[in-house]
Amino acid sequence: MSDSEAKQLLQDGDKLYAQGDYYSAIDAYSRALETYQEIGDLNGEAETFSRIAKVYQSFSEWASYDAEKLHFCAPDDPGQQPTDPRQPKSPQPKSRKR
Question: What are the boundaries of the region Disordered (predicted)?
């Protein structure tokens, strides 16, 4: 592979990253990294590692955000336990009149 092919892989990775397809972006960046290593381009390697780090940082931010939604979802009723907002709410039993 050549420098131009590695640059194309970086561009492909950038597009995939922008679309939120992080796993495919990592794959494209990894292939670019292999190419830069084969041709001995240290600057290309550094740039590729930077982009890979950006993807992993996005994973971390997503995981933190998701954990906040899950663990810090305040219930409407103080007597209720926090719930996972991704799950549908179960119907509440109707109170019976005596």
Answer: 72-98
